[in-house]
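Follow-up to my post from last week.
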Amino acid sequence: MKKKILVVDDEFDIVDIVKIFLEGKGYEVVSAYNGEDALKLIQKEKPDLIILDVLMPGIDGFEVCQKLKSEKDTMFIPIIFLTAKDQLADKWKGLFMGAVGYITKPFEEERLLGKIEKIFEQIDNGNNNENES
Amino acid sequence: MQREKIKYSFRKKLFWYIAVLVLLVSLTFAGLFIQQQNKLLKENLVNKGLSLVTNLARMSELAIFSEEDSFIDPVINGIWAEKDVVYVFLYKDKGKILVKHTRMRTTEKLNIDVKQKIHNTREPFWQYPFSSSKVWEFYAPVFATIERSVEDSLLNGKEKRGKVKGRIIGISRVGISLININEQQKKIIKLSIKITLTLLIIAFLVTYLIAKKITTPILELAERAEILGRGNFDKEIKIKSSDEIGLLAKEFDSMRLKLRKLNKMKDDFVSLVSHELRTPLTSIKGYTSILLSCNLGELNDQQKEKMERIAKHVKRLTSLITGLLDLSKIRYGKIDYEGKFISLLELVKNIVEELDIQAKDKDINLEIEISSGLPDVYVDEKLLSRVFINLIGNAIKFTPQGGKITIRAVNEADMVKVYCIDTGIGISPADSNKIFSEFYRIKNKDITKTEGTGLGLAIVKHIIEINQGKIWVESEESKGSRFIFTLPINKR
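User reply:
Got it. Predicted complex:
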């Protein structure tokens, strides 16, 4: 089954690029352009991974992350931040909130892909291990 | 703070100027004082001697006439009570000694020249018998003041010899030793020396204090200027002084505020522009790579080539913007410095491994000459990696096919000296001063093709300076370059 990835960014271009790129790599991509839409979409679509911008009007990326991590059925969805905020403090903040990755713009698509593949690999391994034991 | 040692400090200079001046002035005054006192002492001595000898002469008339010295005993005793009087003589006109008191040996006979002089001048006088004499002599004529010779009237009862008034009937002589006055002179000299020394000490103290008062705020200002020079505009320059230096400090501080404002404007501008540029750049980059990855359908060769060109320029623009942002972050201390002790050998090995592919493309040999015994250095690993990547990257860029690049590190006193030596095209002396400046790129027809942002070495320099090191380059054109930097081993 195709993995489902949610891309959230207030910039159409970023969503567009990531969507095209990841679809090309065989993923199913859904998109949202602000925090509120993203939260609604997550309930409906139940994505396997979320790529999240930080600076957005309304609910920002950090808040979205916090909300997801505080709810039982969404807390295990891995989150990768993709943002222009390049301060080390922001990176730590993001990672402390439970994100599995923090990638700054401008980004290398290959790096994003590498990160995503690694995360799914780990999740699959974990599931396999659970099944085995 | 590292301040250059001042060889001839203002404090020392002022001190010595004033010292010499005070010494000259006090010596002059002491000399004048001693001279004046000497003169006064001698005058006093002469006055005293003359008054003694004249007094004696005046009182001696009767004694000479009667040849009875007991008449003048009280006078003689009075004179003799003066301790510096060493002899007293009273002569009758013919030279006969009538009174003689001595405390030292001397010629008792009346000198014929003296007698002559007295008779000629009829006045008291003084002399020193020989130049180095320790005794001054005073003479005075004894005049007859009564009309008639006592002698005659007593013996003959007749006025046989006529008037004798005004006739010199004897000579009084007093010798006064100079010992007393010599002692007083010594005392005066001692006093002068004491006063001079006291003045000197006071002058030195005052000079030192004044110099200190002047130089302390100047040194403080220099220190602040140095801090300012390092790009720290936040420390207020405040010197409590209402004089010219205070004014200077005030002007300096307003300059600092202006600089800070300008600097902030520049920073804000750079970071705004960089951030604003990054957003569209991200889009361009993303779409380019999507088109190139053929997710939206195959491109023909020509289209693909043009797309690759776009991608290349986008990459360059990205690294330029990233470099600018990094530089402003590093320079203004906004970087998150994560210092720890690391082994240079390990770090360089990793980086050389990474860059080896690039080097192999140009058939360049990368060599590491670092002893495993080299002490660890306290640096930010990420930043120092940037230094090596930039330096070695440059070396690869500017070294022709088949060259060699050597990374060497040696321990020297309390620091590690790192060399990055290449066999590249080298740098001209004119360029070697400027290559660490932002956006400076060497103008050379051989390297117009070479890409770069002109920021790499500026970043390197700032990183080395953050780590309290220094960097410089030694080079000869067409023979290669040696970039050398130092890192302190000290613990922070």
